[in-house]
Amino acid sequence: MKTFVPNPDRTATRRGALLLLVLITGTIISVISLGALIVQNVHLTQGTSMKDATSARWSARSGIALATKDVSGSMAWRSTKTPGSWYSGVRSNSGTMNVAASDPTDTSFADSIAEPVLLEATGSVGNSVQKSSGLLLAESALRQAMMFHLACGDDLTVSDATVEGPGWIGVKDQISVGGVNSVRCDVMTGDTDSPSGFLHRVRTGATLEDLPTYSDFSDIVSLGTAVSSTQIPNATATTIETILNPDFGRGYQGWMTAPDGDLNTFSSGGVGDSSCAEVDNRTSASCGLVHDVTGIIRRGLQTQLSAAVMPLSSASTFELSLIVTTTSGTSTAASWTSGSINAGSFYTSIQTISTTVTPTWSGRLISAQMKVRTNGGGSAGTQDFLVDNVSMKVISPPFGKAIYRTVVSTATNPFSVTSNSNGVYVLDCGGNDVTISDCMIVGTLVLRNTGTVRVGSGPIQWRPARPGMPALVVDGDIVLSFSRFGLTERELNVNLNPSGTPDENGSTDSSMNDTYVPEIRGLIYASGDITLAGDLRIKGSVISGDDMTIQQRATLGFAPEYLTVPRQATHATKSFLRETTGVTRSFD
Question: Is the CB of residue 242 less than 8 Å from the CB of residue 322?
Answer without folding.
Answer: no
